[in-house]
């Protein structure tokens, strides 16, 4: 294999053979192919795409670049969920214990905050003592013991993706459906699942701003998942405003605790119940997604989901006293209400701007090695469709540096648009996709 | 400047500002921007191109990445020639002393063999003692003293191009007109010339296989040259068979000596005289290109051109006794005639294959640090349109390793196509381009 010939082949829009993909990707992982050749190839893929077969072979090569975990010793259909990420997207924190409480094993491997979005790992790590860096052996033991586990990608799982992802991030080759599909699905298919539910977000706070792109991505991910024999269902959900009210790590955990205790937040729980319904359905514990949703609601009402969450936190080293009594948690030193000084109905929120405001408070990373301030963040009080009075706070900012408070307030202020006329609230879930296609709700 | 934002900008087909281009290219030269980001950007340029202004600014940045030589202390219009390269393209070796003999200063910076093509520097260095690595000071003194100098790109001239060219070669981003234009013109515009003649080759042995691409490249190069105030004329010439008969370094020098002594080889000298005519015209020593051609023919016939070549060789450390008496030069240990064993008229030559056969004999490099065998190469006996008898040799291969002889013979055999019907010889020069457009002959 001559690497430059494979770059040229892709540049010319040709399809690489399975053998060529394997040599190119593995050559990159073991250092024979330098970053600059992979970077040129990735940009060529950005422009030329991949054929259906090529994308599946690419995913296969990525999966087998590392350990493929075998969870077949655990009875039942193992189901995971993946979200393409957003602002205030804390669904996994509730969903994993909730679905596990319904008797479905949930082996979940999550990521960190990326760009303006938050990450499940960062949120979980805001719980004092909680460890997400379990090795594969502990991962297996935990899921076997309590039916749920939440960890980060280890160095053994899809190392090709890990290395390529870091490169894509700095070479403007992130926004490319076959590369996104290979990245997501290689990790998910290596973790030992039998079925997968996808939450593909769209809107101003999502990576796929356009709904049509989100649908295309969902279909592609489902196509890849099904081709590997994993039943896959996807939902297209709204990311034009934060999901729930909290943005920021511990603030979001607190919100999840309240929801698990039955204090429902409408948009967050509508999405959570729908995804849970699909997971329970795929896990064989209900005859339909709707029935699965009812099963999930019962698990919240009975307290079983919260109980499972306590068990999960305890098992992964977290201090459950903070979960039982969240007010024990340290508060950010400063907080300030955001008041627009004008009235109307919230017609639009630049949710990317809210995500950036979250970063500014200290809740996210501006550079890769920044540390996170777990107490920092934003609580949103007014969402799309809500009426705002002249003196009403639309949000409250929490931070430990005064300058960051002011910067975040400014950014949030700029993100809101008011209208004199009443505005309909947003739809939370746009539709569903499975191997047969996409259905708009 | 955030490098990934500039990559994204180009990926989206936007135009980079002069400031952005400067920061990106200079950042690459000084090591702030790594190879992988430049590689991704180059591939984005491959797909999205550059605007006219952008390409000129890009060239300007490349020029000013190093020393811009000032030759204004030398009287007269300094004219150089650039060829896009081919098989057996030895024109510069004759042209530079020839035009200098007509009173026009010729400061020439040439390259080495690239891919299947030969390079002027390698050919000159086959002359024992000839040095092409003069520093800028010696370069200036030589042109001042004898009116001609032929060197290689020094580390001071357009270092951005030097570094980017090496990267393009291994990332499949060579074949891209704005990048080619920036590369060629930055070197030429940094060497202190006032005017430039271009030989843009097209055909099976050229980088631009299609005539339409060659015309587009010629127009682009002229556009850039003229925008920097340098009068630029280009010719589109044929590269569907070797130019002249010799392929290989010393073999080509020998052929040049014969031509300079008046033993004309038709295709080689037709191209040489046309380019010389244009250089003499741009140098102000004739009223037209045609008149310039006549001036050039006289300089060959009078022996002035050969005299100037002897002077050049001597000045740059070469042993003139080999030029005066080429039979003194060592011969390759092995030689073999290529006989097809069938008869007909030569209808087609895969000139890329001839170039590769040249590499195989040892006349070129397969890897970047291979050494060159100056005595190796090919003498072509039959060209397109020639009649070949069953026992006629179509070429003779020269090499110092027996296996290479056989491999080269095979490759040459495969490159020839014969026809039963008579075939017209090829046109040598297709047309001419200047700032007003392209004219087909």
Could you explain the architecture of this structure?
2 copies of one chain form a homodimer. The first copy, chain A, has 441 residues and is of the alpha+beta class. Chain A has 3 domains: 3-49, Transferase, Pyrimidine Nucleoside Phosphorylase, Chain C (Transferase, Pyrimidine Nucleoside Phosphorylase, Chain A, domain 3, Up-down Bundle); 79-324 and 429-440, Pyrimidine Nucleoside Phosphorylase, Chain A, domain 2 (3-Layer(aba) Sandwich); 334-419, Aldehyde Oxidoreductase, domain 3 (Alpha-Beta Complex). Chain A has helices at 3-11, 18-29, 35-48, 52-63, 91-101, 120-125, 136-146, 159-170, 177-190, 211-227, 249-260, 266-282, 289-301, 304-315, 320-324, 351-363, 402-415; strands at 79-83, 106-110, 148-152, 195-202, 231-238, 246-247, 334-339, 344-349, 377-380, 387-388, 393-399, 416-419, 429-434, 437-440. In chain A, the strands form 4 sheets. Chain A has a 5-stranded mixed sheet with strand order 1-4-5-13-14, with helices on both faces. In chain A, strands 6-9-11-7 form a 4-stranded antiparallel sheet, with helices on both faces. In chain A, β4, α10 and β5 (231-238) form a beta-alpha-beta unit. The interface between A and B is medium-sized, with 24 and 24 residues.
């Amino acid at each position: 294999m001559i690497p430059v010939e494979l770059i040229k082949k892709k540049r010319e829009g040709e399809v690489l053979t399975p053998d060529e993909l394997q040599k190119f990707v593995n050559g990159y992982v073991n250092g024979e192919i330098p970053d600059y050749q992979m970077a040129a190839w990735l940009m060529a893929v950005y422009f030329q795409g991949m054929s259906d077969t090529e994308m599946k072979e690419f995913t296969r090569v990525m999966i087998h670049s590392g350990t493929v975990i075998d969870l077949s010793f655990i009875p039942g259909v193992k189901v995971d969920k993946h979200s393409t990420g957003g602002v205030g997207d804390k669904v996994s924190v509730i969903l994993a214990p909730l679905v596990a409480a319904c008797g479905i094993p949930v082996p979940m491997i999550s990521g960190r905050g990326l760009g303006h979005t938050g990450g499940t790992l960062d949120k979980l790590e805001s719980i004092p003592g909680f460890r997400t860096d379990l090795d594969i052996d502990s991962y297996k033991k935990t899921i076997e013991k309590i039916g749920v586990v939440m960890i980060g990608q280890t160095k053994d799982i899809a190392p090709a993706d890990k290395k390529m992802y870091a490169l894509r991030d700095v070479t403007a080759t992130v926004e490319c459906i076959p590369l996104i599909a290979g990245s997501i699905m290689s990790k998910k298919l290596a973790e030992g699942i039998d079925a997968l539910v996808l939450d593909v977000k769209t809107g101003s706070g999502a990576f796929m701003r356009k709904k049509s792109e989100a649908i295309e991505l969902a279909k592609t991910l489902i196509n890849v998942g099904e081709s590997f024999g994993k039943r896959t269902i996807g939902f297209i959900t709204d990311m034009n405003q934060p999901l729930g009210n909290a943005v920021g790590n511990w603030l979001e955990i607190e919100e999840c605790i309240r929801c698990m205790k039955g204090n429902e937040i409408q948009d967050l729980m509508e999405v959570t119940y729908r995804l849970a319904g699909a997971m329970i359905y795929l896990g064989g514990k209900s005859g339909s997604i709707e029935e699965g949703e009812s099963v999930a609601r019962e698990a919240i009402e009975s307290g079983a989901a919260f109980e499972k969450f306590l068990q999960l936190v305890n098992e992964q080293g977290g201090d459950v006293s903070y979960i039982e009594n969240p007010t024990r948690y340290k508060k950010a030193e400063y907080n300030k209400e955001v008041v627009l000084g004008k009235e109307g109905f919230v017609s639009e929120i630049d949710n990317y701007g809210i995500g950036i405001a979250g970063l500014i408070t200290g809740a996210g990373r501006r550079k890769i090695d920044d540390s996170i301030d777990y107490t920092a963040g934003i609580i949103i009080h007014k969402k799309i469709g809500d009426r705002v009075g002249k003196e009403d706070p639309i949000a409250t900012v929490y931070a430990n540096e005064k300058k960051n408070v002011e910067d975040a307030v400014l950014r949030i202020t700029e993100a809101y648009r008011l209208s004199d006329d009443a505005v309909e609230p947003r739809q939370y879930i746009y539709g569903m996709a499975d191997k047969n296609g996409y259905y708009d709700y």
